Amino acid sequence: MILYPAIDLKDGKAVRLLHGEMDSATVFNDSPAAQAAAFADAGSEWLHLVDLNGAFAGTPVNGAAVEAILAATNLPAQLGGGIRDMATIEMWLTKGIARVILGTVAVENPDLVSEAARTFPGKVAVGIDARNGRVATKGWAEETDVMVTDLAKSFEDAGVAAIIYTDINRDGAMQGPNVEATAALAQATQIPVIASGGVSSLEDLIALRDTGVISGAISGRALYDGALDLSAALKALA
User: Fold this and answer.
1) Would the pTM of this model clear 0.85, i.e. be above it?
2) Which of 138, 195, 196, 235: CA 20 to 30 A from 223?
3) Is-catalytic flag, 30?
4) What is the full DSSP assignment across 20-43?
5) From the candidates 41, 51, 111, 129, which is the catalytic residue?
6) 131 - beta bridge partners?
7) Phi first, then psi: what are they for 119, rounded to 5°?
8) Residue 8 is among the residues annotated as catalytic for this protein
């Protein structure tokens, strides 16, 4: 199971939110590039990047910070937030992003996801963010009637590289991930599932790994707060 350290970008800085609320942002590093380099030095294999402003604006906002991260490290990075058309997908992949994450557009324009996955094999992931089993969009600001499992299954034949599943109620709350719901999703679809939201201890990571069906986990606040030691976590998962 791969551990993805998260760098959430707001106004050019590395922050973490609580339950996805923008006004609850805590700044953890003024230099996202320095943070990325620190994660690389600790032995990370991947980075998980989110353009928070972009998620709300519907278009990239923290592009300069993302490019600085790419320049600071050779690690592959997946990026979500404000990526809602083919031009933006192509722009980020050209700049060196290894995998784009499509969230809102996966609900509103699923044909775009299928087209992108066909055009850029292995480079398109779907971000499914949910409250109580229902998908939320536009930076989690809007809830839909779409069920998580139904959305995931709809992309089974599209060639999607991964599903990043976030339980919004757990995100940034340091209360542990929703292991049961994430494992159920992973069992319901053939697409690899990456867990996000609430991963706050080594025990959380081991619980996810031991399901045997979850391919990755994203952690942010716990790494910044020191509740989770990145080097130790990577060794334990190796």
Assistant:
1) yes
2) 138
3) no
4) TEEEEEEEEES-HHHHHHHHHHTT
5) 129
6) 134
7) -75, -35
8) yes
